[in-house]
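To whoever is on call:

I kicked off a structure prediction for a single chain this morning and the downstream step that reads the tokens threw a length-mismatch warning. I double-checked the sequence; it's 590 residues and nothing unusual in it as far as I can see. Pasting both halves so you can look.
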Amino acid sequence: MSSKTAFKTIEEYLFQENKRFIIPNYQRGYKWAAKEKGRHETAVEKLMNDLISADKSQQYFLQGVTVSEEGNNIILIDGQQRTTTLYLLFWCLSKDFIKNIKLEYDIRQQSKEFIFNLVNLDDSVMLEPLNTDSQDIYYFKKAIAQIKERIKYFNNTVKSEFIDFLRNKVTILYIVIDRDKATKTFTMMNGSKATMLQEELVKAEMLRKVSLPEIEEKQVSTSLEDNLNDLKEIITKDWETNTLRSRYAREWDKWLYWWNREDVKSFFNTENPMGLLLNYYVRQTNNKAEQNKNLSFEDFRCLLIENGHTEKQKTKLVFKELRDLQKSFEDIFNRPKVHNYLKMALICSVDKEDRFNIIDYFIDRKNDENLIDNYAKWRLVGATHRQIVKVAELTVNEVTKENKVEEALIQLSKNFVYQNAYDLAAKQLLRLNVEEDNKLKRKFDFSIWQNKSLEHIYPKSKVYHKNEQGLLFNGSDEAINFNESELMKDKSWLDRAAFHKNGSEHCIGNLVLLYGRNNSEFGAKTVQEKKETYFNVEEKFESRHLLHTISVFAQDKWSINEIQQNKEKILAQIKVDYNIKDITLEQYEG
């Protein structure tokens, strides 16, 4: 690789006459104003703190930049974030500084326009709402705010000295490489960085390959007309290639933005920048081989090579397949019922491979609500993917999904569900709440699942029982320090023995699903006090969107009979939903 290297001051680097800095299409968005996990300051804040505290009489060295030079254009291969931050810093000091600095984001039109117009903008730009639809602009504005926060106390003397230091003392290592080595160098330089991810390398490689020329051999002609036509064809193809590359980059960035939405990341339980898209695609294409392997740039690069296709043709085919897959992910997330059934199934996944199997099933059957409804329901009682989908392959000795639901019904019919079948009860109560949202055709808020709690409607602290020695305890197994006759005078106490075999304070009939934070708010309140808290719309209460929970709290009276009736109602509903006809609840022991 041929290259040339020199040390340049910021004056010599940024303020070159008639030069234009280009952010190429394979670069990621501007992110230095974002705070990375585990750090107390952003990269912008760290740079500013370091510059401000530096000895102004000494040379200050910044990390180098690697570029490719094409005429008056400086293509930033490595150093985009630093260069952009310096550009924004000089704008904050005085917009006159950037009048002769041309910085251009090659294919992100909104970013390109923002940077181009910045020289004519004043501080009012910061009063505009932050546009989260454009990642670059959002972080441009965040960076400006972080810079201004650190220079706001500069007087004229300090400001002048700081500017002189920036321009003449701050120095970078300036590395120039050949144009045809640019993408490869970008990959080599960034592949080992924590901030340069496999997904970004895939994007860079796809954009590079879709930009490859498709050269056709032509007979040499002495005709001016033929040569002009050939030239027109070359120009047309070049224009089409640039247009295609720009469109691909914009689409990719849209996918990236979608997968980085908090609701999407939480739903699919992924922190990868491109979510499950690339891993899932590689898995599908490789016929599910090495299913638990993380995305590898080399693995993906191999998919772009195939006999019978040019590299450009194969890349276009792969991109189309990615586009179709991305649409499928968005479909299963955006359709309320599919979204709800899918998340219930994902909650029950046992490992990465199982999660992929679930997603496979839902993508293939996203238009059949009955199938995905049944799949989710079976998963909630502990049935595996194989027990649901591969019924014909099960041997006579294997457990079936019907066995699973019968076992679940037995567990849920018992008196002490809270202690012995907590997770199973939570999943069934979740399902009842989700089904109410399905009736309204709205997406259920599954954030509750990470903070779920089962609340006793009738407080367990107000239900008493005797142990073998005749000592009194409440439903929390705490000793009661007064005698039974005194308890009988207080009508707020229930005797667990009065439930007979049909329940207790811990049966599913006395349980509802809540957010854990709301459960702690209830504490040992009476039923009436809980109802007042629940329905006081003037106070924030997260669990108020849970429609099945609301229906239970809405009952006028709540005592032994209502608890037993609610238990029987829930178990009867389970029998209907799972088509259990040959088993009666009387067969179960309390």
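Update from on-call: the warning came from a stale cache, not from the record. Cleared it. Sanity check on the structure: Residues 125 and 500 are 71 Å apart (CA to CA).
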